């Protein structure tokens, strides 16, 4: 048994070595991809729950590795944070998303994900001013999504940066709501316009009454604070119906309506749904 334990231990260390080398390789290649302009964006629509019109689109970063294929953002965004290059990615995403949005018909907005590191590592108000001026997009059409974790990492800085963005008319969304820390004090302290309820609250609502009741109560909390309430990860018509009948949720996002799409396809989807 002792020998077996040792064998397992060796296997464990081999696996750690593989992980370590894999991550080192990804890091080097990510730096290169960013410099070469090889990152791209896809967009996923947020729709009004009753009219099914597209209200805005969320920009999501994509990286297709030349040999390893698509690397999910859940892998490369944390790597970029570790490497200290997340701000360069955020700057790329803000500039491209704003430029793309200025091409869309109607008053459709665009949402960009911001990392907690960006509060310190980036002049967000400066970047936003520049991108809006270059594209001619009006401030209310840009929305920044921040997670509870990002805000908690940098409480004081987050407050002053978000207030300065909010003063410009930029919309601020609290992302993945319900998955982070449950201290709600900052919900009213920070200038949020929107609450995005994490998809884990949506998953079971068609089968499980208690899950539906929980979602309805989280939505009510948002409505009581005068926030626009969005449900993420809507995958089925039954989920949509339950939400429409039993919660005050105003906007929905998820595979039921559309997967994230490249820019050229999203413009077409918008004119199809809203036209
Ligand atoms: P997020 O901000 O919560 O983005 C929503 C994620 O849920 C996206 O995954 C989207 O493709 C996925 N999703 C949308 N609808 C559904 C659905 O109906 N079912 C399921 N199962 N999933 C759905 P994605 O694109 O893989 O992004 C994962 C996370 O990576 C994002 O979560 C965000 O935290 C981060 N991320 C992506 N792009 C960026 C970026 O440009 N900057 C930063 N800082 N983070 C990013
Ligand atoms: Ca998001
Ligand atoms: Ca989210
Ligand atoms: Ca999420």
Automatic annotation (TrEMBL):
<protein>
    <submittedName>
        <fullName>EAL domain-containing protein</fullName>
    </submittedName>
</protein>
<feature type="domain" description="EAL">
    <location>
        <begin position="23"/>
        <end position="274"/>
    </location>
</feature>
């Amino acid at each position: 048994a002792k020998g077996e334990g040792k064998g397992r231990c060796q296997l464990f260390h081999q696996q750690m070595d593989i992980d370590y080398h894999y991550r080192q390789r990804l890091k080097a290649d990510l730096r290169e991809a960013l410099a070469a302009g090889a990152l791209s964006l896809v967009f996923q629509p947020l729709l009004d729950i009753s009219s099914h019109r597209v209200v805005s689109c969320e920009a999501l970063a994509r990286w297709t590795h030349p040999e390893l294929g698509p690397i999910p953002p859940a892998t490369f965004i944390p790597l970029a944070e570790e490497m200290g290059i997340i701000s360069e990615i955020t700057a790329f995403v803000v500039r491209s998303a704003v430029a793309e949005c200025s091409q869309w018909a109607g008053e459709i907005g665009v949402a960009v994900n911001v990392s907690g590191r960006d509060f310190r590592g980036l002049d967000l108000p400066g970047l936003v001013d520049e991108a809006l001026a270059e594209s001619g997009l009006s401030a209310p059409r840009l929305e920044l999504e921040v997670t509870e974790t990002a805000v908690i990492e940098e409480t004081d800085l987050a407050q002053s940066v978000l207030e300065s963005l909010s003063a410009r008319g930029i919309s601020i969304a609290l992302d993945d709501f319900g998955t982070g820390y449950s201290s709600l004090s900052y919900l009213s302290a920070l200038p949020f316009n929107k609450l995005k309820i994490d998809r884990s609250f949506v998953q079971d609502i068609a089968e499980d009454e208690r899950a539906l009741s929980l979602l309805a109560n989280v939505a009510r909390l948002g409505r009581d604070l005068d926030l626009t309430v969005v449900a993420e990860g809507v995958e089925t018509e039954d989920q949509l119906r339950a939400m429409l009948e039993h919660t005050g949720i105003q906007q929905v996002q998820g595979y039921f309506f559309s997967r994230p799409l490249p820019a050229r396809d999203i413009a077409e989807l918008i004119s199809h749904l809203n036209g």
